[in-house]
Amino acid sequence: MTDSIHVDVVYAGPLGQIRRKVEIAANSTVGDAIDASAILDEMSADFHAAGVGIFGSTATRSTRLRDGDRVELYRPLLADPKDSRRRRARARPKPQL
Asked: Counting Cβ atoms within 10 Å, is residue 74 exposed (0-12), middle (13-18) or buried (19+)?
């Protein structure tokens, strides 16, 4: 058994992507990986992640990691997807019968 694991910490924003590969202790958490990557240092001061995940599945900062995991930082939604769909549906022309 190894004493360390390798994980990626990623963020995709409107201006591009940030990806950091880190080597951390084998029993580390999502929060440990985020801290080790220093990825938050590259964000604006008012950035607050809306959530975190591992390969697209929701996680918490205390979730334990495995070798090869990809930790993802999620940004807040700018609009509610349901409201956006309703607006588009109302704007669509009604079909003629």
From this structure: middle
